[in-house]
Amino acid sequence: MISIIVPFYCTKKEYFDKCMTSLLSDRDADIEVLIVDDGSSEEYKSSLLGYTEDRRVRVFFENHCGVSNARNVGIRESKGEWLMFVDSDDYLEEGFYKILNSMTWNTDADFFFFNGYGDRYGYSIKNKFFLKEDVDYGDTLEKKCMVMSSGLSLGRTPQHLKCFYTLGSPCSKLINANYIRKKNIVFDSGVTFAEDTLFSLSLIMNAEHIYYVDCYLYHYFLNAQSVTGKFRQGLSNEVDAFFEKVFSFMNKNGIRDKLEESYYIRAFLEAQRCIRQEFFHKDNPKKGIEKQREAREFLSKEPYNRALHADYPYLNEKACRIVSELYISGNFGVYMQMYGLMSKIRRVLHK
Length: 351
What we know:
The protein has helices spanning 13-24, 45-50, 67-77, 96-103, 141-152, 177-182, 195-206, 235-252, 256-279, 288-299, 304-309, 318-329, 332-350, and strands spanning 2-8, 31-38, 57-62, 82-85, 91-92, 111-120, 123-126, 173-176, 210-221. By secondary structure, the protein is an alpha/beta fold. The chain has two domains: 2-221, Spore Coat Polysaccharide Biosynthesis Protein SpsA, Chain A (Alpha-Beta Complex), CATH 3.90.550; 235-350, no CATH class. Strands 1, 2, 3, 4, 5, 6, 7, 8 and 9 form a nine-stranded mixed β-sheet that branches. Helix 5 (141-152) packs antiparallel against helix 7 and helix 8 (235-252) packs antiparallel against helix 9.
């Protein structure tokens, strides 16, 4: 049996219905779907319980403790020999069960990767991984580090693939339940940013056998409602905590030199997120001079300062160098204008 863990928090009904319809469409599929509600308001309760009319569905109601706790509850309560994670606004391709089930026959895999699509502006666009079939990516430290590097860098290594979701996501993985329990691999509930990357790093590092199956089954919903994303006060502190955890992970496992490039690429990318969604977001009520001071202080810290000056192939691309120069010179307003313009152009091109 495959246990499908679906963390839920106030997801729009149209998205969640599409998600659940895709999971339950095969009446003969030997699955269980564990919906873990992370403290949604009361109005969602009856809708969630309505899905238990299918005996394969179980619902758990938790206090609002975050997606990591919700996923951990799903792991703890799951009964299947294999498990996977599906976000409540995503969905799977028709016929997914037969393909996933066939992976589990006579295998030594600790987990599998499979592929999917990024859904935006009404289009489904194929995601890109560098992985190949018939290769065990868990049998050497070098291969595992190559996969971890790709996940940590959000697909910028080894081939600069700008994936819609990456090898650092818990989605598009079919995981052996015995493996994850034996190694006690869980989500860190104390981390509120990029906890999925930390989980995936641990999942990959501890595995002995990892395989990729070139099947496009997962649809990842890309929310295009906002150019810069929602305002997140304190995001920079959450990002700091994430990088401290990653740094500790690299040192603990003696792989700092192998993941260093990806570490600084990720710092470069997340520094931009902090500029857009915290320091210079339109909903930030602080005055301009204060925004400038806080942004400069943030970028002067490690790993962000080194990321702006790092000499790696991806960071030496023209677009990255422009961003770095704008940040170093303090021209954050120009950066925000450029980012907004490029986002509008991409939206028009997609349409």
